[in-house]
Design a protein that fits this description.
The chain has 4 helices and 4 strands, in the order βββααβαα. It is of the alpha+beta class. It has one domain.
Length: 166
């Protein structure tokens, strides 16, 4: 839930949530400082965690393809891999730094904001549910989703080969 935060520009504890907008993969909370008028957008920590885990999965798969070959990868492949690591760092650290620059005020009341955006968004409820749990839930959600898909595939394979196989 959006909470009151300390403004990074003026230092006053008056950064209040104004609106919440649902985007394609996450929601963005718009804040406005009552003292200096600064407006910022914060991505919920769970969404940052989800992007981090998905990026690490992608980098891990790409690294597996690059480094398990008996021949060493070329300098172009290593450069592209390094740039991908830097891009993941930029994509995940930039929104995380906004949370550190504008910390939550102790014992601040939560604001209940209505979510702007399309009502027919296919993942509206799961996104909003996940964002209520925090960064660690965002880190674990892709892992649990991946494990769930593999578990379902294993059960289907077991049934297929046990009852319908030759």
């Amino acid at each position: 839930m959006p909470q009151l935060r300390k403004c990074a520009r003026c230092g006053a504890p008056s950064l209040t949530p104004v609106s919440r907008e649902l985007q394609i993969y996450n929601s963005v909370i718009h804040y406005k400082c009552e003292e200096c008028g600064t407006e910022i957008e914060l991505t919920p920590p769970a969404s940052i965690g989800t992007v981090t885990t998905a990026g690490l999965f992608a980098l891990g798969f790409w690294g597996f393809l690059l480094f398990t070959d008996p021949f060493p990868p070329g300098w172009i492949a290593l450069t592209l891999y390094g740039l991908a690591i830097l891009a993941l760092g930029f994509v995940t650290l930039r929104p995380a730094l906004d949370h550190f620059r504008n910390p939550v005020i102790d014992a601040s009341p939560t604001a209940d904001l209505s979510v702007e955006g399309p009502d027919n968004h296919i993942a509206r409820k799961p996104i909003l549910l996940l964002e209520g749990f925090g960064f660690l839930a965002g880190l674990l959600a892709p892992v649990l989703l991946f494990a769930g898909v593999l578990a379902i595939a294993s059960v289907i394979g077991f049934i297929n080969f046990t009852y319908f196989g030759n």
